[in-house]
Design a protein that fits this description.
Layout: H1 3-19, H2 32-44, H3 46-49, H4 58-69, H5 73-82, H6 93-112, H7 125-142, E1 149-153, E2 159-163, E3 168-172, H8 175-182, E4 192-194, H9 197-204
Parallel strand pairs: 1-3
Antiparallel strand pairs: 1-2, 3-4
Helix pairs in contact: 1-5, 1-6, 2-4, 2-5, 7-8
């Protein structure tokens, strides 16, 4: 497993273990137990994980989620920590990094920021740059449902257009915060928004993300 994805995986496992199965997350309707089950199903049940994107597989996904949610919580956390099966595509370093670095970062923050005593986490510059690079490539996808024009901007001035349109709202923040914003965690992201008041209000409640 490559550096960023492996680190975020281990951090997510530690956070889930410390929070406990009944602790809340930023994922609406999910406790830590459901979030842990989601991560395991995504990696270990490719036949069901397709339901995350395809409605025709939704029933299979729901059944797999129910099965894994019922497993001992400690087992779920350990499955996350040890990683995917050897024959899984996720066991390949390049695929692990491409598919999991952002996924595990977002879910780690889902756990952290849902707790009352959470504190800001400072990301190292290399990881921040990696998140920004990924966000540049995914911006149009995550922002496709934005009701207004959406521009993402780092404090250093780098920008990415997530959605064309008018009026335009510019969201400024560190790459990790912009990632959370674009993955539908607008209320938890430490960003500043510039634009017309009504447009800003629409954006903060919009269904962003994959």
């Amino acid at each position: 497993m490559s550096t960023h994805a492996k680190r975020e995986r281990l951090l997510l496992a530690d956070l889930l273990e410390a929070a406990g199965p009944e602790a809340p997350t930023l994922c609406t309707g999910w406790r830590c137990r459901e979030l842990a089950a989601h991560v395991v199903v995504r990696e270990r049940r490719p036949d069901a994980a397709g339901g995350l994107l395809l409605n025709v597989l939704k029933g299979r996904l729901d059944a797999a989620m129910a099965e894994y949610t019922a497993k001992p919580y400690e087992e779920l956390v350990q499955l996350i920590r040890t990683g995917p099966p050897r024959m899984s595509l996720y066991a390949l370093k390049q695929i692990d990094e491409a598919a999991n670095a952002v996924e595990f970062y977002v879910h780690a923050e889902d756990v952290r920021r849902a707790q009352p005593d959470w504190s800001p986490r400072e990301l190292d510059p290399v990881f921040s740059d990696a998140l920004w690079s990924r966000l540049e490539r995914m911006a149009r996808l995550t922002g496709r449902r934005s009701p207004v024009g959406l521009v993402l901007r780092r404090p250093n001035g780098q920008t990415a257009v997530a959605h064309k349109g008018a009026p335009v709202v510019t969201v400024t923040g560190e790459p990790g915060e912009l990632t959370l914003f674009c993955f539908g965690r607008q209320a938890a992201a430490a960003v500043t928004l510039e634009g017309e008041k009504e447009a800003v209000a629409k954006l903060t409640t919009a269904e962003l993300g994959l």
